[in-house]
Amino acid sequence: MAEAIETSKTRRVYLTLRDRIGSGELNPGARLPSEPDLADLHDVSRVTIRRALAELEREGLISRRPGAGTFVTARTIKRPIVADLSNALAHLVEMGRSTDVKLLQFGYAEPSAEIVDALRLEVGEKAQRAVRVRIIDNEPFSYLVTHVPQRIGATYSEAELGSKPLLTLIERTGVKVDRATQTISASLAGPEVAEALGIEIGAPLIALTRVVYDVKRRGIEHLVALYRPDRYSFQMDLVRIDAGGDRLWSPVERLKIGVGINGAAHGD
């Protein structure tokens, strides 16, 4: 229990200092207070301060110089990739090719009742299940769990899934992807996810669940994606319209989604 409390304090100090650096309150070259002063300021032990500073140093946000002190570096915090929520399937292939993927699990099994219902599978029909981590700028930012009907999954290999976007492999079979439904919520990182994404157990995550359908309204992919909120966010453009005498917000479809800081819906 004491260790958990200490870990929580370390993260609080780390996030506080990180936010001050990211907001520009602490400019590059600024000298941080000494460890005893930081401990008093945050009402924690010096051990907690050292742990928080070690994490900031690991990220390249500060440098500790023996005999001189701790200084903010010139490196800025990376802004998250921004995905257009109103058109989240756009440019999936392009985004998939611009990132790397690490395949953690691949196999076939009878899916849960939730997956069976979402994909509208036949009784006893198996699904191909894969777990992958997407990486951009050599850092993990999403943990993906996909289920695909066995009749489709059997058309590609484990090696292909580790090197090509899933929708590319699905469409290669002649399946016509038509539409998708998705929900976005929040989640907490379990042990496996935390290890894969390089975060602490219990860290907050953005959770997206998407079901993709073909032109015959058959489910062809079930995706659960967990994103690091410090590296990924969603954005929607809105316009004010008249609707039956009421003034409402309506989504604006973007003509193009770029890759990188300016936004892209990530490929699965």
Distance between termini? 38 Å
How many extended strands? Answer: 12
One letter per element, helices H and strands E, the order comes to: HHHEEEHEHEEHHHEHEEEEE
Number of domains: 2
> What Rg, in angstroms, do the CA atoms define?
22 Å
Q: For the record, what is the CATH homologous superfamily label of the largest domain?
A: Chorismate lyase-like
Helix content: 25-40%
Largest sheet: 6 strands, antiparallel
- What's the mean pLDDT score? 82
How are strands sequenced across the largest beta sheet?
4-5-6-9-8-7
The computed structural class is: alpha+beta
Q: Looking at the structure, what is the overall shape?
A: elongated
CATH-level-2 architecture of the largest domain? 3-Layer(aba) Sandwich
Contiguous low-pLDDT stretches (5 residues minimum) are: 1-5, 86-94, 255-267
CATH class of the largest domain: Alpha Beta
How many helices does DSSP assign? 9
CATH topology of the largest domain: Chorismate lyase
Could you give the topology of this structure?
Elements: H1 2-22, H2 35-42, H3 46-58, E1 62-65, E2 69-72, E3 81-84, H4 92-98, E4 100-109, H5 113-119, E5 127-136, E6 139-149, H6 150-153, H7 158-161, H8 166-172, E7 177-188, H9 191-197, E8 204-214, E9 219-227, E10 232-235, E11 238-243, E12 246-251
Parallel strand pairs: 3-10
Antiparallel strand pairs: 1-2, 4-5, 5-6, 6-9, 7-8, 8-9, 11-12
Domain HTH gntR-type: 7-75
GO molecular function: DNA binding; DNA-binding transcription factor activity
Protein name: GntR family transcriptional regulator
